[in-house]
Design goal:
The protein has 168 residues and is an alpha+beta fold. 30% of the residues lie in helices and 33% in strands. Strands 1-2-3-4-6-5 form a six-stranded mixed sheet. The radius of gyration is 16 Å and the shape is globular.
Amino acid sequence: MHSPSSPNRDHLSRHPDRRAFPSKLTRHKPFSFASVFDDWLHLSDREWREHLDQPVFVAFLNGQPVGMMGLKFERARKMVHRAKLVSVYVRKGERGTGIAANLLHNVTEHARDHGVLQLELAVNAENSAAIRFYQRHGFVEVGRIPNGCLGHGTENDELIMVLRLNNR
């Protein structure tokens, strides 16, 4: 069992029902992700392996996953110094407890250990709490994609944010 302060990046990929956590979240928290449940439901095993090839950090509380944060490394040679934060979620009742900060710290260290110099993310421009969180942790807004996320009868801009990682 892992406390919220020690996210386990490997648990989700080894978990016997590894499809359950992301697909359950997209079904029950549809406004929290760009994906929808059906996007995950119909993935082939090969597509699942491709998703799980990228690190996913999961925070647990009392044996239950309460938060997750993924990292998508760029593969093109001229962009290999960059990675994207993806699939960020912390259960509503656990927000403000430090779980997201711990996840971000672990993801950032993992990225830095793998030569990443810049973390990037896209966040719904209406999600002021998430934007403040990222700003507190050094991310700066570098752009906006008008109507970057469509769904549930809404059109929301996405903010593009970047964090330059210092070399140790």
